[in-house]
Amino acid sequence: MIPAAFAYAAPTSVADAVALLRAGGGEAKVLAGGHSLLPLMKLRLASPTVLVDINRIPGLSYIREDPALGRLRIGALTRHVEIERSPLIRARYPLLADAAAGIGDPQVRNRGTMGGSIAHGDPASDWPAVLLAADGEVVTTGASEERVIAASDFLIDTFTTALAPDELLTEVRLPLPAERSGGSYQKLERKVGDYAIVGVAAQLRLDEQGIVAAVGIGLCNAGPTSIKAVAAEDFLRGKPLAPDNVSEAARLAMEASNPVTDDRGPAEYKRAMVKELTKRALLQAAARAQGGAR
Ligand SMILES: Cc1cc2nc3c(=O)[nH]c(=O)nc-3n(C[C@H](O)[C@H](O)[C@H](O)COP(=O)(O)OP(=O)(O)OC[C@H]3O[C@@H](n4cnc5c(N)ncnc54)[C@H](O)[C@@H]3O)c2cc1C
Question: Which of 108, 228, 247, 258 has the most CB atoms within 10 Å of its CB?
């Protein structure tokens, strides 16, 4: 449980952090909350030669709406707990409020960051599924350019993202909530503080007649990477949320899942839970879109 030797740097600007990553030539790693990286280092599953600690870089932790951009902007170093407790998030982004409150335990939420969670590319992390449902984007900063990447393009495979070794994930963006929109995150855990057995994020917008005008569904821990349930989304768009339609969308989300049997349960059980949680997430998102229980 002792990590391999490594050098440590604590830059105070994004530019310096990027320069350190570049100098590390792929062997340097960013240290944010450390709640995923340090366990991997202790198990010697990761042995970076340099840790670039970004915790002393000012201006990477914030939650604000940007009407000109039409986006909610969250700094990469924003802790899970700051999202959980944010009055803005609680009032206007129930999908995020649900997910933040269910991440790990208070120690994990106090240290872990949204940026770290997404950069890590772990299919068991909750934020990537939320981003897929909400059509989120990530902003990366490298030596010469800033990139804005759709979450669906960013999340490539298990522990693999579109982030280059000399880039920092600097911001997460989500669309501002439209009229008659709502979201919900449903997570099934073995016990409080654990990763999800499976989780389902849903975000939808209804038109004035109650027809689904837009919908996003993201699955957590239901396959080798976080999954966007595209067939379920396509099926629901343009239809009312009648029980048969909800059931069919849930079945299609289950079809999109590809979980493995492990100590969190058999694959068949997880698939069945994806179906059930998709129904619950859609129905709660719709209730919230119609001004119901937050
Ligand atoms: C007991 C326990 C329970 C947990 N339960 C859950 C859970 O239920 N749900 C959940 O989603 N997560 C859970 N986690 C994980 C937790 O949310 C982590 O905090 C998160 O996955 C990683 O964020 P971090 O800030 O700690 O990143 P770190 O551990 O510091 O970094 C993780 C990886 O991302 C890279 N990285 C970090 N920040 C950046 C950045 N800004 N730019 C580029 N690369 C970056 C690092 O180099 C590293 O490769 C749990 C962790 C523990 C220890």
Answer: 228
